[in-house]
């Protein structure tokens, strides 16, 4: 069956509310696999064979993480350095080429409010702009960029807001699953 692979990069999932709520909602959806990368690689030593296999076996890829200092948690960067470098610079024909056209959805939770990400706000740039390195990576790797799924005010959100976000996430994953490889991603 076509599969959505959610790679979760949260340095402290035990303290999480937002990402935990999203994962709980996605858990058990048909054809969705969630991999807690921090639990798998607590020492940061990534099994590149396993990760390459996982990506090639997936039909759609999701990077899910809390924003940290306007960027991704460090394990996601390490994963890119290890896995994508191998697939796209060392073994392109055998590995990297096999990702062509697969949709990539970035799911990011942010502590700040949307207006903090306005030009006159505390963070100066829109979150979409801060995610451009991931968009460039998707482009370089031939992945179809999907509109990111962003949760603002993540650490202040009450249970009701988290529940609503989780329900939206399930809908969004459903839309992503409905896109065919090579289509404009949902
Ligand atoms: C080290 C660190 C850096 C952070 N940097 C940012 C940031 O740059 N922008 C932002 O909006 N929130 C930032 N936050 C807040 C987190 O993004 C927020 O707490 C998280 O998304 C909440 O999700 P969770 O409940 O799953 O942990 C940061 C938090 C930590 C611990």
Topology:
Elements: E1 4-8, H1 18-26, E2 32-36, H2 37-40, H3 48-57, E3 60-66, H4 74-90, E4 103-109, H5 127-130, H6 132-140, E5 144-145, E6 149-151, H7 159-178
Parallel strand pairs: 1-2, 1-3, 3-4, 4-5, 4-6
Helix pairs in contact: 1-7, 3-4
The structure holds flavin mononucleotide (FMN).
Supply the key terms:
single chain, 39% helix, binds flavin mononucleotide, 6 strands, Rossmann fold, alpha/beta, 186 residues, 6-stranded parallel β-sheet
What would your notes on this structure say?
By secondary structure, the protein is α/β, with parallel strands linked by helices. The chain has a single domain, classed as 3-Layer(aba) Sandwich (Rossmann fold), CATH 3.40.50.360. It has helices at residues 18-26, 37-40, 48-57, 74-90, 127-130, 132-140, 159-178, and strands at 4-8, 32-36, 60-66, 103-109, 144-145, 149-151. Strands 1, 2, 3, 4, 5 and 6 form a six-stranded parallel beta sheet that branches. α1 links the parallel β1 (4-8) and β2. The longest helix is centred in the C-terminal third of the chain and has 20 residues, at 159-178. The structure holds flavin mononucleotide.
